[in-house]
Write a structure and sequence with these properties.
Order of helices and strands: HEEEEHEHEHHHH
Structural class: alpha/beta
Number of helices: 7
Strand order of the largest sheet: 1-6-2-3-5-4
Shape: elongated
Mean pLDDT: 84
Low-confidence stretches: 68-72, 95-100
Largest sheet: 6 strands, mixed
Radius of gyration: 21 Å
Length: 232
């Protein structure tokens, strides 16, 4: 089966069994804990086998940022298959798809295989989440070989579901306003934050340079950028 068919199959068979009770934060980082359940890839070859693979981890979504159609979302901790699926979303929904407003990082934690059916395992995990009253935990049923494609589908749907609230909150603070150069107010604030982080040694200058280049603003900030090196 070619990769496009495999991706479609993985997406088709992905189900969000439990969604987080909260949406993505507009002005802060959101940490979503996930349980991604799959039937092991070898289950079809073993008659009567009832096992479930449990993958646990975190998806970290940084606060949403205003973007142009040319601004690409950064994805950390995802396979090339997951990235390819994201590219298909961009083509389907256009360069302004909601996923482009966020920076994601996947941090896998644990992998366990238990001798119970997937639905039984999901029920037990769901009961435990209810007991903890955890608003930022989800349960996803996915495909074993392309499990992070299933995770990517969840992320995209989570982002799309949060988009309206995020835009309303950004707009209420004037962060969607565009200046004379066509740059959103939040983008300017983000650049100032990066200048501060570079000055404090928290990030490398190249990250700031990349952000300025994405907005075609390096020439405007060039003197400030090089002044950083004079201080060192």
């Amino acid at each position: 089966m070619d990769i496009d068919k495999r991706l479609k199959q993985a997406v088709k068979h992905t189900q969000i069994l439990r969604s987080p009770k909260q949406k993505l934060s507009t002005f802060g980082t959101t940490n979503i804990y996930y349980y991604l359940l799959t039937e092991p890839v070898y289950s079809e070859m073993v008659s009567g086998l009832s096992e479930t693979v449990i993958r646990e981890g975190r998806v970290i979504a940084q606060k949403p940022r205003i973007v142009t159609p040319y601004y690409l979302t950064r994805l950390e901790g995802f396979s090339s298959d997951a990235r390819r699926y994201f590219e298909t979303l961009t083509k389907t929904y256009g360069p302004n798809a909601p996923g482009l407003f966020y920076t994601y990082k996947n941090e896998p934690k644990e992998l366990n295989i238990v001798s119970e059916s997937l639905l039984i395992v999901a029920g037990k995990i769901n009961a435990e989440i209810e007991r903890r009253k955890d608003p930022l935990t989800c349960i996803i049923k996915g495909e074993d070989e392309l499990w992070d494609v299933s995770l990517m589908k969840f992320i995209f749907e989570m982002t799309r579901g949060s988009l309206e609230d995020n835009i309303l909150q950004l707009g209420s603070r004037g962060l969607l306003d565009i200046d004379a150069a066509g740059i959103p107010a939040q983008a300017r604030l983000g650049i100032e934050e990066l200048f501060s982080k570079v000055s404090n040694g928290e990030i490398e200058p190249g990250e700031l340079k990349g952000e300025l280049d994405r907005w075609n603003l390096f020439e405007e900030y060039e003197d400030r950028f090089y002044a950083i090196f004079k201080k060192k």
